[in-house]
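Appendix B.2, paired examples.
Example (i):
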Amino acid sequence: MIALVLALGSSLAYGCADFLGGLGARRAHVLRTVVIAAPASLVVELAVWPFLGASFTAGSVAWGAASGAASAAAFLLLYRTLAIGPMNVLSPVTALVSAVLPVAVGLVQGERLGAAGLAGLPLALAAVVLVSAGPGARSSRPSATALLLAFGAGAAIALQLVFLHEAPAHSGVAPLIVGRAVASALTLAAALALHRRLGPERPAYALSAAAGALDSLANLLFLLAARGGDLAVVAVIVALYPAATVLLARRVLAERLQRSQLAGLGVAAVAVCLLAVA
């Protein structure tokens, strides 16, 4: 049950981070947003180090570095995907891929679920698609390039979660610190390489930093949840993060919720209840 609560908290934090990061990316190039968000997330991990500890073994450093590289790729691919659009088709693709791959890894590694869990997993995956889909999803047709980018973004998000899960359980927050440092370095290098294309606009510092801090919190909660529960269950709960994003969009931007999204929220609630007793 504790792992489920932590996974829900991680999902909420990811959803809020995506919302704030999206707002920041509307005001400036995505690289300007990520260059601020990534170091902000590193600051959060360094702040919790004294309380949760960190063991920088070869395993924790290697898996942490791998998760950081996947995180940097996920940031860039995700925002590029959403920029190409249509968002209402590509968001569900990304979210679904990000959920399915960790679930598959968990099951291959021998995780076993009861009847409630077996019923809850497909419901949760369906909820991921429903809450991510916006208006006009049926009529909009993405290009092959956009679909490949969406799959790539989902795969990068999934790999980040899997790599964090594979880090030694006794390593504390070391994988997160290494991962955030690697992600910061990679995004900074990308920004320096492409600085002439970024334009003169100033980034939204507060929004970007808040997005990075929330993303860091989400990673921390996921790591704690995965260490205390099954990766298959934790990953699919975390993948419900679009629910928080669409609810914030409804509250802050006055965006209307579609019937499919409302249905998805209901399906998500049922799925969480089933997974809670799995």
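Example (ii):
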Amino acid sequence: MLDFRPMDTLVWVGLGGNRGDVRATLAGARAALAAWSDGPLEASPIYASAPWGDGDQPIFFNQVVGLAPTVAPSALLAALQAMEARFGRDRATERRWGPRTLDLDLLCWPGVRSADPSLILPHPRMAQRRFVLAPLFEVAPAPVELPAASPEEAAAMGYLLGNCVHCHHGREKGDNAAFSLMPAALRANTVNQPTASSASGDGIRVVP
């Protein structure tokens, strides 16, 4: 059982899909998420990216949304899975990393770490996914700490995103190395590299 108390800081959820009218689905998902937030959502731009893990499918559209939930992490996870089903996702029949109408991932919850297989926080594969990190970097109002395999992995991700990663070792003995996404106003260290994303003509950003 996770300890929980309502927090002023935002919880981050990743949204994505590549079947049907994805932009309409993302809009519907944002409206559904708003009902679980004690305050307005913080939504990133929508990003287009190549499929992750299974390339034989259409491109994905992804977005990150911040909300201030008043329920425990496990209850929010259950709500996210119910939203996926409402928008046509069937986890029982889909192939792993295959096409889906809507994918909702609970990415990170400030002050909460969990190794429970049913809900690992922060999300264990965040550091590998530019389609998560790029929109999160655009919208996060404060540093977001993520697990990383090594400082070298963090530095590599900093090169890919451009000027946004501050790398540091674990603060206490036994901690894993970690890195923080640093919003522009809070960057402590910068690397003069171009950003990994660019905007397309229809307002969709592209993750190469």
